[in-house]
Amino acid sequence: MRVIIESDAQSASRRGANFVTDLVRKKPNCVLGLATGSTPQSMYRELIRRHKEEGLDFSQVRTFNLDEYVGLGPAHPQSYRYFMQQNLFDHINIPPAQTHVPDGRALDFETHCRQYEQLIKECGGIDLQVLGVGTDGHIAFNEPGSSLGSRTRLKTLATETIRDNARFFGGEDKVPRLAVTMGVGTILESRRCLFLAFGPQKAIAVRDTVEGPITAQVTASALQLHREVIGVFDEAAARLLVRRDYYAEVERAQCLLEAGEFRALGIGVQ
Ligand SMILES: N[C@@H]1[C@@H](O)[C@H](O)[C@@H](COP(=O)(O)O)O[C@@H]1O
Question: Which NCBIfam families match (predicted)?
Answer without folding.
Answer: nagB, PRK00443.1-4
